[in-house]
Queue: 3 jobs
Job 1
Amino acid sequence: MRHTTSILIASLALGAMINGCTSPTGTAPGDRGSKVSPVVAAVADAPAPEVRIRHANGAVATDSKPASEAGVEILKAGGNAVDAAIATALTLSVTRPYSCGLGGGGFMLIFVEETGESRALDFRETCPTRVGPEFYANLPPSASGYDPSLYGGRAVAIPGQLPGMIAAHDAFGTLPLEVIVAPAVRAARAGFAVDANYLSAVEKVRSLRKSHPDLRPTSRWIWDRLCQRGVIEVGDIIRQPELAEYLERFGREGIAAWSGPEGIAALLTGVDRAFDGVLRPRDIQDYKVVWREPLVAKDVFEDYDALLMPPPSSGGIAIAQVLAMMEHRLPSAGDPLPGTAAYSHLMVESMRHAFADRARHLADADFVDVPVDRLLDREKIEAAADRIQFNEVLATNSCGVIEGGAADVLKDEGTSHFSVIDNQGMTVACTQTINGTFGSLLAVPEIGVILNNEMNDFTTIPGASNLFGLKQSDRNLPEPGKRPLSSMSPTILLRDGQTAVTAGASGGPRIITGTLQVLLEVIHGGKSGRAAVDAPRLHHQWKPEILRLEAGLAVLQPELEAVGHDVETTGGVGVVQAIVVHDDGLEPASDPRKGGASAGW
Ligand code: GLY
């Protein structure tokens, strides 16, 4: 669906932008075609040789090679995409223990191509019963001045990871849980090799322990065991026998091993309380996952429909808004392609609208009224897009698709996204998190589980920014049982009722902007999954008013500054894992920004 606009393109700056257009390269996703054997061949016309990968029977894209291989192992054993997703998720908790794990939570979007059914599983962490809206405002600072919603027991929200895995398995699983946990158990027991990204997490812990000596007892187990007291190199093997044993038990006993009378609730809450936490065994026993209806955005960009995560994800709404704004305004800018200044400006202004809405209106819709329908109203989105000027930036207070709401009220941290497609087209997009690097820095040593610091995703102090510099409204204040607003954005784009692309990311608010840009690189830029994920990206989250460019886009800085953007260069904008469906097979693409590697068969 194309929409025309009467806005005139008038500025010299824009002229320069449009002249920067390039022609598309690579191939767009096609209808599902014949299944073929994996093929690896060079793409002749790519600027740098690109390895061309297609898989006939299934594909998994994660930020950790053993986890991608775990998923494929389960697919080969006859499991479906959900079985493979559970194996992948659990293996990631072993190999990326600073990003996700049993002490965290997440979102899983599932599309069953055979029936057209789609489901959204919310296993996000929730606020403990003893924490209310004023909790953090009334806390004295720690001795070294760290934020108590970030580290130690008071940062820990009630984990939902294992209840989530069980819910997904009960609803869609086909293989026994004992079989599904096997690759994760193996990775934990035999160990995995440390890579460069792992070392960056170790450095983060080293620096925190230096700047905040009162976090040394809190982080002791993580520092001693997972960081090897800082004496660690690429290729070193990390073994987690306690976690291996616990995962095996989970495979045998299911949810009882977590929250049943013989589960570990007391153990978990004991550790938490020893470090000023407030978790109670009942918090863990009473935790409930929520099955939600995915947001469906029809014809969101040309002939693509989007399946998106509803609140408490903010990403679903933001991605739908930006895709629709881009579709509406790209023609009036001469259909510029990704990598040009005109395209980038349009993208940034659309992001600013979406992040303004995020800050003002979004929170857990089970607790506050979130105007989802109005935020996704196509006319309102197009009206907001029409306010975008090509020769200047919108005033901060003019941003947002809908009016009203209190506005003044946030690099890759502890999150991991993966995507799976099986041989029936069943698609899983799953993002899981413990929020910051190694979450709260607290571990339960007996079972090797790291506890999240998801409480910092709430508006802990009205008016203050969170870990990611995001401003959020009072609607997102903590309340018992409430889920903190999230940027996690597992997304599936359909064409003609079949999966065309699935993507998602880690990286705080850069999850949203990273995912969006990869999707558009494929569906508008015509790129392969590999080229789309590799392409340089930008980020703007409305507040602070700073446009961040990866180095590969730094060449655009003068043109973007000329129209009024305050520009800085930055490290990675999200870590995106995607799978693109081509006529001749599945193309998984893991993001090199975190050293990921995909697998398939
Ligand atoms: N913890 C990151 C997010 O949920 O957005």
Job 2
Amino acid sequence: MNVLDGRKVANDLLDNLKNEVATLQSQSISPKLVVILVGNNPASLSYIKQKRKACEKTGILWEQINYEESVTNEELIEKIHELNKRNDIHGILVQLPLPDHIFAPDVIKAIDPKKDVDGFTAYNIGKMFLSTDFEDLPPCTPAGIIKMLDYYDIDVAGMDATIVGASNIVGKPLSTMLLNRGATPTTCHIRTKDLKAHTAQADLVCVAVGKRNLITADMVKENVILVDVGCNKDENGKLCGDADFKNIAKKARYITPVPGGVGPMTVACLMENTVKAAKKLHSS
Ligand code: GUN
């Protein structure tokens, strides 16, 4: 079977983290994550539900702070400063997207990098840029992808990797993390002239755009490894990725499904970062 089972890999990781959390609790350290939600975007509500479930599974404490859409930058930043100071909190996550009137970079900048379990602050992004040794609190989706590839003994060193999508959350950090591991990444985006020319020559294609059927079987080579980060709905309202799974699976060496691929890995890595942050905060 060439389907990479993100659910299984994530559950294994969560089981290990559960033991680690129990050990920390026996030392009076109770890892805790705070999630800030603004408004009630349905996708955000669904992501948060999965994060909360993973906390329950691992024993990580959970606190959710909800704001109306009308909240201001200043109110959010003031709350984050307060959370930065609280010793019982180890991870702070601001669910994105934020409403248009909020300047997200300023809000993210307010998070203490030691509690930035999403790995979105300039400090943590910058560390990741240096090398694998400095990937301390890496962004969760790229970290989850790397962890899944590692689990299946897929060594990216020497591979031509095409990343489709250049977001700060996935595409850009994933390119860097693959480069850190010896791959040759190419990052494609909306202005890329000939997408197929880049995907067709790649050993590894990672797609994170949010456009159903963007990657079709004719766009990838035989034995490709395809990682699909997309999260879309098909005509029946069922969750699907950015790639034509059915047809690409016939020629791929490995492929990740949607759902059950990268999504659970992202959540598991968030839990891992929270435990890591708790350990570090208590040792310093
Ligand atoms: N919105 C979509 N993905 C993410 C994520 O990984 N973290 C946060 N904070 N918001 C998101």
Job 3
Amino acid sequence: MIKDLQQKILKIKSENDACILAHSYMPEEICEVADFTGDSFALSVKAKSAPQSTIVMCGVRFMAEVVKMLSPDKRVYLANARAGCPMAEQFSAETVAAIKREHPDYAVVAYINTTAELKTVADVCVTSSSAVKICRALPQKNILFIPDINLGTYVKNQLPEKNFILLEGGCPTHSNVTRAAALAAKEAHPDALLLVHPECRPEVTALADYVGSTAGIMEFAEKSDKRGFIIGTENAIVQHLQFRCPDKDFYPLSVDLVCNNMKATTLYDILHCLEGRGGEQITMDESLRLKAVKSIDKMIEFGG
Ligand code: 13P
Ligand code: SF4
């Protein structure tokens, strides 16, 4: 059944000159039909160079918006129109612009998990894998980091030479993980390394053996000569790693580490989107796009 659906998707994808991008939180069966999988940084770079005229994003809305910003002449679809990232919508551009007016000497650094509107008031975007590198490289000493307080705190702790203002935003999935849960997982698997996404709270990242993006966590586990790993990010990563490294053992840090928005997309959504009877075509006012894309271009320039 899954194989049949995948075959149909692959056929219509090539007939329609479409490229499928899948964030690493997508399940295995979706990654199998994707042209590219990866973390949010890798996908934004791929979006810029994909030769196809149509892009289908299997992820959440801000990711499809980034694709549209970078490829305005392409038809860009979000495979499931209901898949949004709650963190991306936690602050309005007006709120951030007002804070910026009070602190004119601060560079506004926006996590890529933000709406296009919010990106218009950012000087530069960052992803979880590029945040420390980019904040370090910024000429400004003062940084207003939006919207994730946990990622912001993680970056701030790495860069004592900079001043940070943080807002109280965050990921409802990752910020739910408690220190008690992390301690319990370590006690249950004493020989396993704890690998954690920086969207988790500081008291959780403080216990980690490695902190990094979804791609960073996967690379670390694959290359490590250790055998056991507790995975402190969305549980799809546990599944992917177990597929890739059958001789190693992967344990979820918490069974609650599930992002319902990332889980919303199915193979049927992709098929219906390619057939023109599902998904949502992303449209964007050109003046909004031009203002918002500057912060993404800057990120790619800094990120290498
Ligand atoms: P990555 O930047 O690690 O892909 O993370 C995106 C995300 O939404 C994490 O919750
Ligand atoms: Fe947004 Fe969190 Fe889901 Fe990532 S895991 S898409 S940050 S809600």
